[in-house]
Amino acid sequence: MAGGGVSDGSTYSPLVGGMFVFNLIVGAGALAMPKAFGESGYIGGSVLIAVLAFCSYITVTYVVEAMSIANALIRKKEKNIQSVVTPLIASDNAEGEKDGVYNITIRTEMAEMAQEFFPSWGVKLFYLCIIIYLYGDLCIYVVAIPKSLQSVVCGENNASSNSTPSYMDHACMGSINTKHAYYLFLTFFAVVIGPFCFFNVQKTKLLQIFTTGMRWVTFILMIAIAIFGISSKKGFTKQDHIPKPSHVGIFHASGLPVLFGVAIYSFMCHHSLPSLVVPIKNKTHLSRVFLTDFALILLFYCLLCFTAVFRFKTSKLEDLYTLNFEDFSSEFVSYFLALFPVVTLSANFPIIAITLRNNLCELIIPKDKILAPWIKHIGVPLLAIGPPIIVGFFTENVGFLVSFTGSYAGVGIQYVIPALLCFLARKRAIKEFGYTLNPHSSRFGNKIWIYAMLSWSVVCVILVTFNHIVTRK
């Protein structure tokens, strides 16, 4: 078992759970989206983002259903199903459900569900996808945070993934140049944030609540500043020109694969759902919690991207959108926005690392053997966060990491694996429990929807492969 549920017994409300999900989804992809959105055109970009949001929501419901079935199977294997069902039906249980068979009270990581429902080749495919994706995600965070700090402290725009190392040669903090400043911030990040990866997600509850508020303030601030610039037709500097509406791209098919490579990160939360869902007290309306989250995030993404492309020329949009506000008249606002990636991505980093740690435990720690406690509590967490930090010392190309790990491994984690998990788990549930009502059953569990998600994943792979080929040429 991946962890046996909430080890310290702490829980939180559906509202706080929604904040956790909101924080996890609104990560690096949100800041990289405006540039890719502008290159796709605002009509083409809007349609693609909406489709990605809808497909991601569907597959989130697949993961939740698979978790509920996995919970039921675990209780049956432990021969406690009869003793558990009766009191849950008779009392007002923590889940608030009428049927306790499918209550989600045990944390079952995607790795455990893959081992339970997939054949051997499916398990290998899962581990390949999850490890590549999560390691890639952590690498992106490890690079983006020090670069943002470097930009604020050194006052130099370093965000472009196409920039050469020459920008690092000027002095930054006394005798320290910008290159050494980046390494210094990277080390500081590893020392301060790294220890959180050795604990459970619930330990970051206050941090998640704080960063949720900061996210709302930041998004509203960037949107408001952009709208003011559009209405006043005044840029931050003489070189900052507001594009004419007629000059803003409407549809560019060549930009869609790039936007997909970035946007797939902008709705990703599937890998961490087990850690986030189990502590929620009342899981009766989980689908509503996720639907509200996805709707709010889609609304903010659209507002952010639309105001960005009508405020800044596409050629001037940075890989990290917050860096476009470096020359804003208010230094406080400029620094606040520049530090946004630092705070918010730092809050996401432990969640991703804990998810990777839990899945690595499933992969490398035999269930029938008792190993020294330090292996699970120290060795595996170091294995999860160590490689990304090392990679951060060798590359700063955020755009490449997002497009590669997100495009391929992300397709597997976000579409293929959830669809297959739901399909195989539902067949298993019918075999084991008959047609017992599952309150966590997905509304999109029909085979047509599952086949549609698998077909969509193939289309996505073709799109991003085409993009990589064209880009290399």
In spatial order, strands of the major sheet run 1-2
Largest sheet, in brief, is: 2 strands, antiparallel
Net shape: globular
Helix amount, in percent? 55-70%
* Count of strand segments: 2
So how many helices? Answer: 17
Kindly provide the radius of gyration, computed on alpha-carbon positions and rounded to a whole number of angstroms.
23 Å
Mean pLDDT across the residues is 78
Main structural class:
mainly alpha
> Distance between the terminal alpha carbons, to the nearest Å?
47 Å
Proportion of residues in extended strands:
under 5%
Strand and helix order: HHHHHHEEHHHHHHHHHHH
Parts with pLDDT < 50 across at least 5 consecutive residues: 1-7, 83-99, 157-168
| Multimeric state | single chain
Keywords summarizing the entry:
single chain, 473 residues, mainly alpha, 2 strands, disordered N terminus
What does this structure look like?
- This protein has helices at residues 14-25, 28-40, 42-77, 81-90, 110-117, 120-154, 178-193, 205-232, 256-263, 273-277, 286-311, 331-338, 340-364, 373-392, 398-407, 409-433, 447-472, and strands spanning 171-173, 176-177.
- The chain is mainly alpha-helical and 473 residues long.
- The protein has a two-stranded antiparallel ribbon with strand order 1-2.
- Helix 8 packs parallel to helix 11 (286-311) and helix 9 (256-263) crosses helix 17.
- It is globular.
- It starts with 13 loop residues before the first helix and ends with a helix.
